[in-house]
Fold:
Amino acid sequence: MGRAKELHYYNGKLKGEYLSDVDCERLDFIRKASDANSTVTDLKNVIFNLDDNAIDQILAQQSNENVELSQGELRPMQTTGVAFLYFAKRCLLGDSVGLGKTVQIAGFMNMLSNDAEAEGRTHRYLAVTETSIVPQFHRELIKFTGDYSYVLPVSTAGKVRDFLKYYDDDEMPNLVGSTSLIQQDIFIQYLMSKVAKGEEFPYDTLIIDESAVLGNKNTKLYKNAEFLRNHVKNVVILNATPFESNLKIFYSQLDFVDPTLLPVKTNFEKRYCEMKQGNYTNYATPTGKYKNQKEFKALVGYRYFARTRKATGAVMEGCTSKLVATPLTSEQKKILRETSMPHMVFDNPSYFDDTIPFNGETSPKAGALMKALTGKIRYEGGWDTSQTVLVYSQYKESQTNLKRYLDSHGIPTNIMNGDTTQEDRKNLIQGFQDGEYRVLITNVMKGLNFGNCNYVVIFTTPGNVNHLVQFEGRSTREHDIRNKHLMLLCTDGPERKRFDEVLKERAKASDAFAGSDHSLIMSLLLN
Structure:
């Protein structure tokens, strides 16, 4: 039975112990302004917009001294986002891909820096994200804040030790690193020693990108992050996708932002989780399905702020999404009976038998992709066969074979995966954006900006709907969505059955909780 816990409400919403009634009144006002797509005029120019030369200069001299700081401008919905962050202080920002979460964070950091400067002190932030995203995240924060930050692209113990040694006797700078930084004992122990000595904590604000890492409260990362949370004034965690039906993960993340906000977990489960009586016990256990999602979303409105493109007035024009079902070959049927790796069978049967060549006949998905690239599979309005195409393929072996197959047919192709170095990754993205080659095959689903690529192909279908939405979002960095085309390749049989019976249900659950955005993959799944 759960312990008793007093809950605090204002205007029908949970407010926790940190927010005052005045704070809640302000947040309600900001939410109304956001719903009306209004602008907080005073915050319109709270960011900078530096070019690469200015960013490089700041990095070289470790300050913005004598650097020309070009003024930036927030979009209307971004001004309300910054205002919400400022008055909430602790918040989960869940705006959709492309709405500018990083620029809103930068605006928030600039406001806090201005406040600190007025008090005669310096504001410092600690920001972490996935390793593959760190360099881009780091530069974007400098671009929009105009302030120097140290970067730890790979947060190994040695790198962290060097950083601490270098700054031990000095004021620490803003720090951007991979999420693994929070798991480094040397880093956490150093900060704990600061607290034990009664010294000022080095950071005012904690920023955690890709908040899925906080879905399990029992991990070392979560517990270390709790220590950081308890010693900073401001906490922002970011998530670009809705939570499907898994409110328990959402519970853990909101409980991290504000541990005084929510009911204890047993009471939460009774109200929001469907329960099933055990066969051999008198206890009910969660089934994994949820109820009352909309009620829960409304209740946590002072700590969860999320907008979709659709809600902010974006348009979606000239876009198509198509499922292309490919046949299951006799070779694939035989291999399926002998292996527990069905997705590899669907994508790359040659992996199991090197006598099977990789081509359009033995690997029908590859054949369907080739037809699309050469204009033989056409959407309404047709494919522009001169345009770049972003392809999601999960397995490295499939990526290699697919590149070899496309190259052999005169379609210039490149690969980006976990083996790609940061420098090569930067060059690959730039080359893709510049049209130096036509197809980029990757399994990187989050965070990176591939530019405004109009054609996306899902070659491997993952089990998580939100991962598909994330990948689609890599190709759309503007508010409006125009002339985007998505093709999902799916093998008839078990894979098609999973698409129809599992992914579609997960999409419905996601839509019930957060509402669907302008998303090609969600359109395909919901219709």
